[in-house]
Structure prediction request, 186 residues.
Amino acid sequence: MPSIEELDALRDRVLRALYDSTVGGSRFFEFDKWASEEDLDGPQVREAVEWLRDRGLAKTPVTGPLAQLTPEGQDRVEDSQRSVGGGSGAVLAELTIQEFRKLEVVLSDVRRFLEEHGDELERDDLQDLKAQIETIEAQQRSPRPRRGVIGAAMFVMAFVLKAAAGGLVEAGTLEAVQALSSALGF
Prediction:
């Protein structure tokens, strides 16, 4: 049985996915399909949707595994993503679903690079890259992955890859790390 923290994290993740898929897009979120795509436990996702519905954050039609965001649900997500420090130049505190997915792709590329070329790097550089990956992975497991922490780790990763790995890194991988670091405010 999942812990309370795990249930909260799943509910938050479902609410964010519901928000991302329905605000400005389709009216309904196919949560069974999403659970399958995300390799999540379908019954747990259904329970999370029911929990959100019971609290007025989502609506579910009578038929089908569909959900719709309520105004209260939209407010809840947007409140959780309000700018840190206020003002128009501030950045969102937490990752969006799209950023989370981009991060997965970039990390996969960096891991593949380390598998193929890790033995060609200086020991300290290799350990530094692994430490940055561990930092990002810890944030991914967090119910509220922080943009600043991940952005800083991506910035360091880009610096080490560029300085230490030189021509070993594929241009696309380095550019992806740098672009994501920049998108996260670094």
